[in-house]
Predict the 3D structure of the following.
Amino acid sequence: MKNQKFKHPESLMMSHGYDPKLSEGAIKCPIFQTSTFVFDSAEAGKGFFEIAYGLREKGPTEEMGLIYSRLNNPDLEILENRLCLWDGADDCAVFESGMSAISTIMLEFLSPGDCVLYSNPLYGGSYHFIKNVLCRFGIEAIAFNAHEPENKINDIIEKHGAQDKVKMIYIETPANPTNQLVDIEACRKVADRFSKDDQRVLLAVDNTYMGPIWQHPLAHGADLVVYSATKYIGGHSDVIAGAVLGSAELMTRVKTLRTFLGNMAGPWTGWLLMRSLETLKVRMNEQAHNAEQIANYLQAHPKVKKVHYLGFLTEKDNPQNFAVYQRQLKSAGAMISFDIDGGEKECFRFLNSLKLIKLAVSLGSTESLAEHPSTMTHSDVTPEDKALYGISDSLVRLSIGVEHYEDLITDIGSALDAV
Ligand SMILES: *Cc1c(COP(=O)(O)O)cnc(C)c1O
């Protein structure tokens, strides 16, 4: 690799994997808006297919050529190479949505009779896929609550008699919307405990909330990391996309299924995400800086009962979460939720009074967003689970953007005055 001298991903986001000489000297990677690619010769075409279909190994100096945009396309390949740098992964596959990334790994690594263990609460779409789609294929699902420790998770597997059936542990941390943390290293230990010589229990982590800047699950023992690239990676609320990263061996399987499901991202999405990656770190760090100011403001406000912000974790109040936070996270992030003094009516008055902050779901974008989890993103969670996870009628979730924090505070302050 030419760039080995420069080791910080942010330095490489403008150049890694792209050679201007191959594109008329264009400083930026063009959009290869093409479905198919012309072979130099019939022999070359034959060779590409032999490798693509696994009929033989790639030779030591051989370069895999371009065939057809469902299999490979320069915008996707270069984007995937760049995404690998942040997580220190061997390989990456980009998808047309976060949900297609998530559903593809579950379909590839789970079979009828298997069981998936997941952390609760999960993103609503992932939960729905596990509960309503995987079960139709005879794949069982059992859950543990985000705050439960390793021995409790082991007990849950044994109590369900799933020792021989569990094939994947699927977690999301921090949990949405209350920022409860799941210990990735503890989950690795659980996965190892139930792995057999010929069957490794895979640990997959949805890192959408923190990645790829603030948390690196592969470094803590995860096998696969998945993203909704719609969120921080895209970062401008203008594209839907997803990504999966992991070892070469696992990613070959993921990419093969992607080829046959046909759910890869298109060249235009690839190009948009490459553009977004150039500013990923500056955006995310500014968002985290703004979030800290806003969390402090909310914490001191008389109409706010409780602020759920990772920066407020203390060893005294929550030693378990605090230890995970220190080991696993590089930042408190830019997601805040808080309980207003009141209920749904007060929350709606607040949300309807915001001017600069937009009332919308999604997260991780340049503009700040606000929503009411109980009636919006988490409206189909059962009342018991809502109570368990602290998703009350008084909870508001904020995704902090890159505006000036003083203006955000002015907006929040006026909206709270209206409550
Ligand atoms: C948005 C989101 C998803 C789903 O991603 P899409 O790009 O909307 O398909 C999955 N997980 C988390 C944590 C998310 O926030």
